[in-house]
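#onboarding

Welcome to the new folks! Below is a worked example of what a typical request in this channel looks like: someone posts a single protein sequence, and someone else replies with the predicted structure as tokens. Don't worry about understanding the tokens yet, we'll cover that in week two.

Example request:
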Amino acid sequence: MIQFSRKVLSELEEELQVLSFDYDNPIVMCEKSTQTTVKHLYVLKKFILDNGFETLENEILFFKTIKPKFTSKLIYFKKVRNLESRKPQGSKRIIRKYLDNELNKLNNYFSENMEFYNYYRTGSEFIDHKIFIRNNVEINYNLEYFYFELDHRFATSHDFKVAAILGNENFQKYIENKIANLSNRKPIEIKPQIELPTMKWTESKSAIIELIYALHTQKAFNNGKADIVDIAKHFEIMFEINLDDIYQVSNEIKNRKINKTKFLDLLKENLKKRFEE
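Example response:
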């Protein structure tokens, strides 16, 4: 159970990392990430329902430690999506006030759930057998109202509470980073010198970076003397895409376990089909 869960979690986190690089729009990124997390959570649920737990200790471990790592991501992505979609237009002062208000909501949540938060964060275990075993509702640390609507084959009274702690802590870091960036933000808008029809890149960011690295390796520009950053800047202008993190994304591509040249292989395959037709 533990080995399988770790494998599914590792695959999920790898896919989420790719999505975070591929999509600059945080709302779209959250939607894609939520879909991916739900897909992997379903795989995990099916495995648990099919195989069960060998011991009560394994069941406690799963619902206290493993499952919340999945569901906390759903909570985090939902909160980030809501934050970004409701963010007001206006000055830095208006945005700062909005972000501060969201932080206050988080602080209120932690205050309302302080008893369980302290139990979990101090590593306590004395009531684990009551709150992380299925179909057991003896202890009530502000039990979530929707608990009775959950699939109790795959839920305990408090595994969602743990997920909420993890998700909210990550969301708090996200907001704090947004606040820190308010004073350091220096947007640089690069526009072409001549009027051109709008041409937006609609494939993934990793795809265009595969293409840029392939062209650079082939020495396709300036007899091979063009720098990779200069090539990326031209692509940014032409296709209205932000490639400031080109080195980070290229490292992600190089670390892929499967098919490091996925986009280039697809280009070759589709072009061959087109010529044949």
